């Protein structure tokens, strides 16, 4: 088990596409809990992209992205839909 930790392996950064040595990358868990490892596979970020991440909570974000059909629209169209959804949520919370 310990030997697999030290083998040379490259991974691809999900943010910029750069291939880096696994030792030079950070694990990314889209569910936000990298400590629960049972049955998971992780994506990776290079150190520069990891340092640019926002560390705010992500609860409900994945569901919202699915509801807004992320990946089905151009980036510009998706961002318009996303901003509208955020504004609507803020209006509901203020009421």
For the structure shown, list the relevant keywords.
two-stranded antiparallel ribbon; alpha+beta; 95 residues; 4 strands; 39% helix; single chain
Proportion of helical residues: 25-40%
Radius of gyration computed on alpha carbons: 17 Å
Taking pLDDT < 50 over at least 5 consecutive residues as the criterion, the unreliable ranges are none
- Give the tally of β-strands: 4
Q: Which structural class is indicated by helix and strand composition?
A: alpha+beta
Order of helices and strands: HEEEEHHH
Fraction of residues in β-strands: 5-15%
Spatially, the strands of the biggest sheet line up as 1-2
Give the number of helices: 4
What distance separates the N and C termini? 54 Å
Residue-averaged pLDDT, rounded? Answer: 83
Molecular shape: elongated
How many strands, what sense, and barrel or not for the largest sheet? 2 strands, antiparallel
Written account of the structure:
The strands form two sheets. The protein has a two-stranded antiparallel ribbon with strand order 1-2. Strands 3-4 form a two-stranded antiparallel ribbon. A hairpin with a 6-residue loop joins strand 1 (10-12) and strand 2 (19-21). The mean pLDDT is 83. The chain is elongated, with a radius of gyration of 17 Å. By secondary structure, it is of the alpha+beta class. The chain has helices at residues 2-6, 47-51, 61-67, 75-94; strands spanning 10-12, 19-21, 25-28, 43-46. The longest helix is centred in the C-terminal third of the chain and has 20 residues, at 75-94. It is 39% helix and 15% strand.
């Amino acid at each position: 088990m310990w030997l697999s930790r030290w083998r040379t392996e490259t991974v691809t950064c999900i943010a910029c596409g750069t291939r880096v040595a696994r030792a030079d990358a950070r694990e990314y868990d889209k569910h936000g809990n990298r400590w629960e490892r049972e049955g998971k596979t992780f994506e990776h970020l290079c150190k520069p992209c990891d340092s640019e991440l926002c560390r705010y909570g992500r609860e409900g974000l994945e569901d919202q992205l699915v509801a807004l059909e992320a990946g089905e629209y151009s980036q510009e169209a998706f961002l318009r839909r996303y901003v509208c959804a955020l504004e609507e949520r803020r209006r509901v919370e203020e009421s």
